From TrEMBL, chain A:
Keywords from the named record: Membrane, Transmembrane, Transmembrane helix
Species of the source: Croceimicrobium hydrocarbonivorans
Segments crossing the lipid bilayer: 12-31, 58-81, 93-113, 119-144, 261-284
Protein name in UniProt: Uncharacterized protein
Automatic annotation (TrEMBL), chain B:
Pfam families the UniProt entry points to: Fer4_10, Pyr_redox_3
PANTHER family membership: THIOREDOXIN REDUCTASE 1-RELATED-RELATED (PTHR48105)
Molecular function, one GO term: oxidoreductase activity
Membrane-crossing residue ranges in chain numbering: 6-22
PROSITE patterns: 4FE4S_FER_2
Matches recorded under InterPro entries: 4Fe4S_Fe-S-bd (IPR017896), FAD/NAD-bd_sf (IPR036188), Ferredoxin-NADP_redctase_2 (IPR050097)
Keywords linked to the UniProt accession: Flavoprotein, Membrane, Oxidoreductase, Transmembrane, Transmembrane helix
Protein name, entry field: NAD(P)-binding domain-containing protein
Domain 4Fe-4S ferredoxin-type as annotated: residue spans: 50-80, 81-110
Length: 285, 439
């Protein structure tokens, strides 16, 4: 059972088209206005296309309006559909979420070009809220969910390295009396309950200690290097696992940034639009 | 100065929104966690049949599954992750499975700690005995659409496998007239097979025992000889109307109240089915579509065969002004007694002295109904005789007494059809957390 193969291909095509639109639009906008956007702020007024690209210009203003429209549609299509299921007869929520991600990625990109990379004034609160919303969305939908897989993948690699260490140390035990001491030292580090930041500072000292202990065994250079690199690789992996666990703890709260800041962004946006219209900027209307 | 004021105001506003979101989220999480704890205490946390499994590594806490579930408090969110609450009340609609925007939900049967007996079925719905097929909820996957599709596919596969030479007049006997059995019968008709449909109770199947009157199906299904069928908040009565219409139109007869007691294999693709009516039906193949509800457990008392005895309550609104006895101490008995209490004189007989393991809501409603006299309790009693206008009951001390009675509803649990399958030679395995449907 499960999704049919044909359905999967249509889905992949759907996702690819959406991703392609975002990439093409971003590249086109960057290419079109490259010269203007890289001009220093104080000199832009004298740029030959200033009236076209500036935030209140025909092009720049249009980008802002279209970008805002895309975000608004993206938000007000997905949230009610998710909460009340009113579109479930026509479209699966999964596709709608992907469409929400598409509109709310493309919209902010258009708004970024609308700002002409000039961030200031009260409206910058809306801009940075938007950035926070987009980033937290990426974290919540992709990165946070990926962490457990990365952790288990690294745990597996670490396990392999630990087994390698066991083998090396049991071989060492046959030739050197001090090996059990070294082994004990490594175990202590592995079972260390310190937090991520404390472990980070502890790492180098510990490694150096192990290095000198290993040096005292007077092994041949090749064996010495191999054991040392194994210990280092295992310790680095352990550090990475701790880092991922820390990220997992932090990223768990992605929605605390995503949802409230979307509201803040929309509130400031309404003020921004109101002020703009009051000042007579009506674009083509 | 103005800038400071404006920025200050916006920062305060932002802080207030984040704080409100955070605290209300925490409050909701705590409420759900308390419900989970209560469900664990009351033994309702472990699912008994088909249920959703939420992959915590995929769940983004959208809450779409909670909204989609037609029942209450089966699913909830704790700290932005979906969780099961009263999982034992899940009846396997599967609406959550379709609603999840990130495909984090799969449908499973059994859990790591609670095994469920499932017959072994090949991908073509055939059992380990060539010629016997299983479709619908009995195979693990319920839901109207899935059951009907399985009935159709089982019949299709069977039509291809049946050898041409056989002395039997009947190509296939379909046991059960729920969605799977009806769809199989329609397919058999379409394929030009000779068939009989035997149903131990009456047309409809497990779906009529669902706690809600409305039947919801998220996507349409193709019914042979009918076309697309879409049930969007359709009442059970309307669904029965649809079944009757399509069966009448194609002159398909359902032999109701004809329970198959035993299936015996006479030879290859040759079976004999003994029914409760004393008939022996021979057929080349069998489709078992009897669901997992099983046979209602009987009291085994004189008079139980009377027409006033029922084992399920279908249309409580039609029962008015009668003296009714409800037997049982579980949720089904209590809910039925409550449904009948407003317009009837209701007695509730339970063999124990206390109602245990019933939903908290039912407990509260029952206590109120008992306090107001709407329901008269007969605790520590057992029915000993059923007569036309009265009933005899026996107390724990052995003393007997009579009450006037027009109707009796018995909810003494059900006997799963597993021994029936094993008797027919079908392999049944205990399954622990088997995934039956995933994206």
């Amino acid at each position: 059972m499960g999704t049919a193969g044909k359905g999967n291909w249509w889905h992949i095509l759907y996702q690819s088209i959406l991703a392609l639109i975002v990439i093409i639009v971003t590249l086109w906008l960057g290419f079109e206005g490259y010269d203007y956007y890289q001009t220093p702020l104080e000199e832009r007024f004298y740029h030959e296309h200033h009236e076209w690209f500036k935030a209140s210009g025909l092009f720049g203003h249009g980008l802002g309006i279209i970008g805002t429209a895309l975000i608004t549609i993206g938000v007000f299509l997905y949230i009610p559909a998710k909460k009340y299921g009113f579109l479930e007869k026509y479209m699966r929520l999964r596709y709608l979420l992907e469409f929400h991600i598409f509109l709310c990625t493309l919209g902010p990109i258009l708004i970024l070009f609308h700002t002409t990379f000039k961030f200031g004034g009260i409206v910058s609160i809306a801009f940075w809220s938007m950035v926070l919303v987009v980033l937290s969305g990426v974290v919540g939908r992709y990165i946070y969910l990926q962490i457990p897989r990365s952790i288990s993948g690294r745990e597996l690699s670490r396990q392999e390295l630990k087994e390698e260490q066991e083998r090396s140390l049991s071989t060492l035990a046959m030739v050197a009396d001090q090996a059990p001491e070294l082994y004990q030292h490594i175990r202590e580090y592995q079972n260390d309950e310190k937090g991520y930041f404390a472990r980070r500072t502890h790492f180098r000292n510990h490694f150096n200690q192990l290095k000198s202990q290993l040096g005292a065994l007077q092994l041949d250079a090749k064996e010495h290097k191999s054991i040392l690199s194994n210990i280092k690789a295992e310790m680095v992996l352990q550090q990475r696992i701790h880092r991922l666990a820390l990220m997992q703890k932090l990223f768990k709260y992605w929605h605390v940034a995503h949802r409230p800041f979307a509201l803040i962004m929309l509130l400031v946006l309404i003020i921004h639009i109101g002020v703009t219209m009051a000042m007579g900027y009506t674009w083509i209307f | 100065m103005w800038e400071v004021l404006i920025y200050g105001f916006v920062i305060l506003l932002s802080g207030a929104i984040v704080w409100y979101y955070w605290s209300s989220g925490q409050k909701r999480s705590k409420e759900v966690a308390a419900k989970v704890e209560q469900a664990q205490e009351e033994g309702r946390f472990q699912p008994v049949s088909l249920h959703p499994y939420i992959d915590p590594h995929k769940c983004i806490g959208s809450g779409a599954c909670v909204r989609a579930c037609p029942e209450e408090d089966i699913l909830g969110l704790i700290d932005g992750k979906g969780t099961l609450i009263n999982a034992s009340s899940c009846i396997g609609h599967g609406a959550c499975f379709h609603a999840c925007p990130v495909d984090a939900i799969s449908l499973r049967i059994g859990t790591e700690v609670r095994g469920v007996d499932l017959p072994h079925i090949k991908p073509n719905y055939e059992t380990n005995i060539s010629g016997i097929y299983i479709a619908g909820e009995l195979g693990g996957m319920g839901l109207i659409k899935n059951s009907a599709e399985q009935g159709v596919q089982a019949c299709n596969n069977l039509a291809e496998e049946l050898p041409s030479e056989c002395s039997c007049e009947t190509d296939v006997v379909i046991i059960g007239a729920g969605p799977a059995g009806i769809a199989a019968a329609l397919k058999a008709k379409e394929k030009g097979l000779t068939f009989r449909v035997l149903e131990q109770d009456s047309l409809g199947g497990t779906v009529f025992t669902f706690p809600r009157d409305k039947v919801v199906m998220t996507s349409p299904m193709d019914l042979p000889l009918y076309g697309k069928l879409k049930l969007n908040n359709t009442s059970k009565a309307e669904l029965l109307g649809i079944w009757n219409e399509v069966l009448d139109k194609h002159q398909i007869q359902i032999e109701e109240h004809s329970k198959v007691e035993r299936i015996s294999q006479i030879g290859a693709y040759h079976f004999k089915l003994d029914t409760s009516k004393g008939e022996a039906v021979e057929a080349r193949s069998v489709i078992i579509a009897i669901g997992r509800r099983g046979t209602p457990r009987k009291l085994g008392v004189p008079g139980e065969e009377s027409s006033k005895v029922a084992y399920r309550l279908l249309e409580p609104e039609h029962i008015q002004g009668e003296k009714v006895l409800v037997v049982g101490g579980g949720d089904s008995a209590v809910e039925s007694a409550l449904l009948l209490a407003d317009h009837n004189e209701v007695h509730l007989s339970y063999r124990k002295q206390h109602f245990a393991r019933i939903k908290k809501g039912n407990q509260e409603k029952l206590e109120a109904a008992l306090a107001s006299g709407k329901i008269s309790p007969l605790l520590g009693t057992n029915v000993s005789r059923i007569e036309e206008k009265k009933l005899s009951l026996v107390r724990e001390d052995g003393s007997e007494f009579e009450i006037e009675n027009d109707r009796i509803y018995i909810f003494a649990g059900g006997e799963l059809p597993i021994p029936f399958l094993q008797d027919a030679g079908i392999t049944v395995e205990k399954t622990f957390g088997k995934t039956l449907r995933k994206h």
